[in-house]
Amino acid sequence: METAVTFARLVMLTLVPYVLAGQGTMLAGRAGVFNVAQEGIMLVGASVGFLGAYLSGGNLLQGMLLAMAVGGLFGLALAYFTTTLKMDQFVTGLALFFIGMALSTLLYRLAIGVTLTPPLIPTLRELPLPGLSRIPLLGVVLFRQNALVYGAVLLSLALYLFLYSSGSGMALRAVGENPMAADSLGVNVNLTRYLTTVTGAMLMGLAGAYLPMVYTATFTEGMVRGRGWLSIALTFFGGWSPHLIFLGALFFAAVEVLAFRVQVTGVGIPYQLILMLPYLATMAVMMPTFRRLQVPAFLGKNYDRERRALL
User: Fold this and answer.
1) Residue 251 and which of 14, 70, 232, 276 are 20 to 30 A apart at CA?
2) Measuring CA to CA, which residue among 149, 118, 119 is closest to residue 133?
């Protein structure tokens, strides 16, 4: 039983980057902007988040805010190039991915340089919820976590209520389904795309900052390790719906924790195969559900208000 509780607790701890990046992808996609720069934005978020915390003497909140700000700048660039300049969304996203990947290493080298001993920051501490954390088994798994675990759960709930129970959420979904109809009803399509793309990228930056602040206490090149790409698959798997994305994040996190524990226990499985487990699990899940996937009708298409047409 203790092993199962530890496993479940680690899954909750591991799902945060998937939830944040997945919900960020969903937000932009619901307005028709397909962001494929997650991996790069998470990397630069990890770098800036770490540097912000380290250079401020261990202030993690400052690191997280800086990571979100940098992520927001990437989102703003994506929105400007695709919504204002009408450039191809996929090509622009890939360019931002490469910029983010290079910038993450450059910023770290400029600020820290090359050291024999990596600089460290404090990690996020547990924040037990009074009363609830004492519930047997469940309290340890759900209510003895760091603040971002609670934040990821609340974010998913809030996005679900926003999208399906509010007029603004309905307008946002309309932009991604039929921007011409939404425009004719008075919805500002371009503003909606800007807001959701920037907000989504801010969540991706925070997802990156979570990695050094919880896993390693330092920044290393490529530390996102494909989680950004997996968040795209997660968003498709979750049907671009917050609650299903959260459930998908639980699955992805469980596979990652399982791969880590298999690696630690050393059961004789090649290391390379263990690293492939999350991607193999993604393919295994996506294949049977591919035909039933539902995406926003105008995902990845630009809208020209002057022409009242999609590009």
Assistant:
1) 70
2) 149
Long-range contacts of 91-97 (CB under 8 A, 24+ apart): 93/34, 93/35, 93/36, 93/37, 94/36, 94/37, 96/37, 96/40, 96/41, 97/36, 97/37, 97/38, 97/39, 97/40, 97/41, 97/228
The 10s digit of each residue's pLDDT in 70-97 is: 999 999 999 999 999 999 999 999 999 9
List the Cα angle 283/287/288 in 5-degree steps: 135
pLDDT at 122 over 80: yes
Q: How far apart are CA 93 and CA 33, in angstroms?
A: 10
Report how far residue 252's alpha carbon sits from residue 225's, in angstroms, rounded to the nearest whole number: 13
Cα separation, 237 vs 1, whole angstroms: 31
Instruction: Give, in order, the Cα–Cα distances in Å from 201 to each of 7, 57, 244.
Output: 30, 26, 20
**With left for phi above 0 and alpha for psi between -120 and 50, is residue 126 left, alpha or beta?**
beta
How far apart are alpha carbons 72 and 53 in whole angstroms?
Answer: 18
Residue 42: closest CA among 276, 246, 231: 231
55, 249 in Cβ contact below 8 A? no
Exposed e or buried b per residue across 94-106, where buried means at least 16 C-beta atoms within 10 angstroms of its C-beta: ebbbebbbebbbe
